[in-house]
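User: Structure with zinc ion, tokens only please.
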Amino acid sequence: MSIYVHGIGMTKFGKLEDKTMKDLLLEASIEALKDAGNPEVDAVFVGNFMGGSVYNQEILGAIVANDLGLGYVPTAKIEGACASGGIAFRQAILGILSGEYDTVLVAGVEKMKHVSTIEVTEAINAAMDNDSNEKHAGLTFPGFFGVLANRYFHETGATKKHLAQVALKNRENAINNPLAQFTKPATIEEIMEARMITEPLGLFDCSPTTDGAAAVVVSKNKSDIEIKSSAQASGPTQMQNAENLLSIPAVGESGRLAYEKAGLGPEDIDVVEIHDCFSMTEIISSEELGFFNRGEGYLAVEQGRTKPDGDKPINTSGGLLSKGHPIGATGVSQIYQITHQLRGTAVNQVEGAKIGLAQNLGGTGSYSTVHILERV
Amino acid sequence: MQAYQCRHCGYESLTTKYYCPKCRHTEFSKVNINETGDIYSYTTIHIAPPKFAEHAPYHVVLVQMTDRLRVTGYMNQDVNIGDRVRFKEFSEGAYVFEKV
Ligand SMILES: [Zn+2]
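Assistant:
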């Protein structure tokens, strides 16, 4: 059975004080449904991570179904840390593949900007293993990727400048994206000299907290955008359990499965959205997904190969680093960008893009989803 | 310093597990491990969780203790990859290391 994308919607990403979580969720959903020609919907899946802990709002699926008059259709909220959106998208696909649904609405949403940094850090840390000694050593998510980055530098010859080049590229892409959180130009010097968060990662190497939502309508009825494959994998939940610190096995495995199911390889992909929660993550995952050899992803960045006019454009939306990272919405917003690319209507359009890939990560490598889409 | 070793495949872990993640066997033996190791990698944390804010900047280190076992720990001395460190104490759930 083939499954297709029929409609996409996305709100502005950023600090959206005057909008509630429901406003954002409905706004993105309505746009996606309109774009799809307002079809009958058989189910709703919502990706969300901290609606319960920092916004005291659950039942997101039922809210969408009720407020949009979708009827008594089944709904669910999907939680998979920062991969909540990608997993929600995959649940819609699996639901259609099972024969239970014909058409499904997927949305992702997060409200994070109304709480203090301390509260938000605590809430995000729920995606670490509470019973581990790592949390008690003062490790944080940016800390994990700081440890990884120092080892990557040690083994490959990469430097902080290469991380800055990732951040700069994604900022330059976001400048052209009216929905992005950060659209102010930055310089490589400014990025290199910004205050440190977890060395060697500075402010520009870390994705921000963001309010926002995105939505997609998928169906077994034909459209111009086919979902060629959907894959998901899990990986170590602790840094000290990584067999190879410079590898995120969940990313590699989800990529391998997605290529296998689609009958495609990394060489066939024209445009990519990678989960760049940190600049370092984009480089490692670009290697995991087979776009570049291990230990050479930083060279590809240096050579401009991942820019919109390069041979492997990554994060033409601005990525999490500059488009913003409303946790539950991120995976769905990647599908939004890839769909625009394949329709030929994207910001930073890659000329002639026919096949696109979106990779969404949760935790420090606990979850990863990969979806491959093709213009047909 | 104590660790646990899978009796079937030799996998080493800081804590006992219900199942060995490598071979799914369920029996582990307690083993004593050498309390010195080498810094495999590290970071310096400037923006810390609330509980650690007063200690920042501090280091989180990943220490290679044996061929099969790395341990995430806390240090307040400057370090580099390859530095030799010693397990100092287990404090409030964290392995604390110091330079040799
Ligand atoms: Zn074993």
